[in-house]
Amino acid sequence: MSLFTHVLACLFGIGSWVAINGMWVELPLIVNDIPEGWYLPSYLTIIIQMANIGPLFITLMHRFRPGVLDERPVIYTIVTVGVVATLLLAFLWNLKVTFADGEHSAALLSLSFLLSVVDCTSSVTFLPFMMRLQPQYLTTYFIGEGLSGLVPALVALIQGVGVVHCKNASANVNVSMGNLSFDGELEAHYQPANFSAQGFFLFLSAMMMVCLGAFLLLNLHPAVARERKSKGYIDDSKRVEKIDISQSPNSETPEQRPMLDFPEGSVIKRRSSFGKGTYSRIELVFIFVVLAWVNALTNAVLPSVQSYSCLPYGNQAYHLAATLSSVANPVACFIAMFVPIRSLVLMAVLTVTGTGFGAYIMAMAALSPCPLLINHDLGAALIVITWVIFVLTLSYVKVIIGVILRDEGHSALVWCGAVVQLGSMLGALSMFPLVSVYGLFQSGEPCKTKCPK
Fold first, then answer.
1. What is the mean pLDDT of residues 274-289?
2. Quick one: 57 exposed, middle or buried, by C-beta within 10 A (0-12, 13-18, 19+)?
3. Which residue has the higher pLDDT, 364 or 100?
4. What is the structure's pLDDT at 39?
5. Rg (the chain; Cα; Å)
């Protein structure tokens, strides 16, 4: 294995979701300067789901025209669009346009849609491209995908986004006693950013350029070519694509052919028509249901209530939970690199465990602003630890499913990306009315950790 190729695969993975993740962490800084205000997160949720038109098109092409669509030109296109869109966002994010019903951030919303299409489509193009490299590099790619959330969060932390200082709202001087007494409540005062939103969006554009450069090297660098497990996939697919399907109705498409040639005389019983037939139909249904469920929880359901579950315990607990859970994602991928257990039983156990911790988070969000142990340090510690374990366990499950489906071939990874997007979409659409329409959750305040009696 080449360290150089691992670095490229990681940088390539970072570009998968860095743009949209960056948009989310920058929200506290930009909402005060746009007409939509704090309604922007709701708009972004809808925009991201509309952007699933990209993955839908790619998946349908692979389903009905297998072997026709080469993901490499698609990746070049979407990453270039990502570079241009983030660059334009740096200069146009606060541009206001007046429509019939008032002012709107037309440039911000339009460019957010383009970035959403880029990131959503990466799920069904980046993963299949990784089939061209050795299996070990897929886990490295997942590490990069995890860093796509951590890196912009760390930059936003350096920027000072969301840093709060708690100050007394009022103070009364007791002249007779000669001392100063405070009888006002604490108020949140947000620290000014160390650099502007423009600088942050320029950083996102630079990250997309790095992703594009990494992809170019993964395609063209001779050292990477030497690290490929074989040219069987590329050459074989080209050969099969030249076959007239109408004259060979029983011939396999390149999406169905095995990735490796087995020794002569070896007979492998296919348990299903999916991929190499390693898993039965029931096992495949289980794998894809778990994949959709895990991504719904980690990408949509629980992130939508993170502030409700953490802020009642204080601003420090909120930032610790957000930062450490972002770290837990690449850590889980790193663990999977050395412990790639493909057991479906372990997958089920970890899924149930992660779901249990997610249920605790959801319960604390539902009880906000007065969750359990709000007046004790144990409550803050528990919510932070719960978030870390939740992300750690379910991120490991996602990587293991990716490794399993990678062994099943190119088509399996296309469906993997499609199911990831489907699960995330269903989770987002389920939570949007509960959070934004019906207002079932009540937010705590960063400087008030005492529950009113």
1. 84
2. middle
3. 364
4. 76
5. 24
Exposure on the CB side of residue 77, measured as CA atoms within 13 A: 10
Report the C-alpha gap between 436 and 302 in whole angstroms: 14
Which residue is listed with tokens 């019939």?
100
Q: Which residues partner with 202 through β-bridges? A: none
User: Which class for 5: exposed (0-12), middle (13-18), buried (19 or more C-beta within 10 A)?
Assistant: buried
- State how far the alpha carbon of 81 is from the alpha carbons of 48, 76, 197, 381, 448, in Å: 16, 9, 20, 42, 43
Name the pTM for this structure: 0.78
45 vs 442: CA distance, rounded Å? 19
- Helix, strand, coil fractions of the chain, as percent rounded to 5: 65, 5, 30
**Cα separation of 282 and 271, whole Å?**
10
B/e letters for 270-285, b = 16+ CB within 10 Å, e = fewer, are: eeeebbbbbbeeeebe
Mean local confidence (pLDDT), 317-341: 87
Cβ atoms within 10 Å, residue 387:
28
- H/E stretch holding 263 reads none
pLDDT at 405 over 50: yes
Alpha-carbon distances, residue 314 vs 119, 191, 327, 431 (angstroms): 32, 16, 20, 24
